[in-house]
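Human: I'm a chemist; would you kindly supply sequence and structure tokens for a protein?

Assistant:
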Amino acid sequence: MNLRSISVTVGSVRRGAALAAMALLAGCQILHPKEEPVVQEAPPPPAPVYVEPVATHRFELHPDDDVIGTLQVTKIQGEDTFSDVARRFNVGYEEMVRANPGIDPWVPGVDREVVVPTQFVLPNAPREGLVINLAQLRVYYFPKVKAGEPQTVLTHPIGVGKVGWSTPEGTTKITSKAKNPTWTPPASVRKEHREAGDPLPRVVPPGPDNPLGAYKMTLGWPSYLVHGTNKPYGVGMRSSHGCIRFYPEDIAELYGNVPIGTKVTVVNQPFVFGWHKGALFVQAFPVAEDDEREHPSGADALLNAAISDQMWQTVKQHNVSIDLDLVTRLADDPRGIAIPVTRQHREEINAQRGNKKKLSAAQPVPGLTLDQYILSARRVQNRVPEGANWNGKEELLVTAEQFEAARNGTILPKEKPVKKTAVPAAKKPAAKPVAAAVEKPAAAAVTPASSGPGTKGSR
């Protein structure tokens, strides 16, 4: 064997060994595949904390502030309906329906979150005495300010005149007050009830059958009253003959605080604007079906019609711009939720960002949506707030037929007395409507615009 042969043989052996080693390594990789990196899943967002609800009827008012209250969100519990939640938080039925479109007001669903619209933009009216905004279905009472004390305002949901019996607009005053009043139905109301099969007596004494409730205050317009009710479920909707109805607990408080001679201002403002914490807020409501005024359609026209010159100056002083697209969306789909509609200028946003990435001239200034605002709202326990007027004990027992009659402004025929006979089982006098018994109410028109037919003693 020569040296060349030995060299070839050794080279072959070395190549064979190298190939064998590579095969062995490949085999190891087959036996032990490379592990994929473990992707850490993001932890679920923390469950919202439901804190104590805040009272929604009495507020201290700062001189330059036009908005009171706080938007709240709560969870449905048990057999709660919108009427139950509304009375618990001192809002009206229509306020709950508007704020929560697409949710069945009679069977909302246990543990479902619902918006409680307990933030309010004050109407554009003198802050004196009683101010009623028919579009909001809400009253504001501004007591006289004592020396050294801040201005306070009380607000409550109300029921107002149905279509054909609309509550008038204008200025009047409280002329008299009465506790446990009798009711003398006017001829026009007696005729309406008689034709519907529900004849009324000439005089209804105090008691549970008296629609005026336990308190009444007479207005300078003799055809109209401010009073309680024996049907609390009718508060927060257009259900009266022109009078202004309160929850029993609210009229009891108001009766003791409002003196005879108090000024009463009634307005009908579906779009209210106000300044609050450096931002312009808007609260939009549906225009009433019998409101014959021509309301501005575009955001620019609406703002020019609804905002005072003084408020425009405030907007300029704070160097903010108005989100016209948001204003248009709110006007087209009014849900009665107060929301800020101003945003900072690009220069101020960039100055606040410091070393962070700036907004370029091509990037839009970020705006706020209604869903984002609701998401940031206070999550609260579903119970009567501390300091509320209502004790939470009186249940709203009503049949589906009775509720729909109140909501539609119709009169039910009087039930014929039943002969006393042996009954095999006790029967409840009334019950809450169930989904099968009542259609889901649609978002209703909310306000009157002109004086209805007035007759002394109407309700």
Notes: The first helix runs from residue 3 to 31. The CA atoms of residues 284 and 344 lie 22 Å apart.
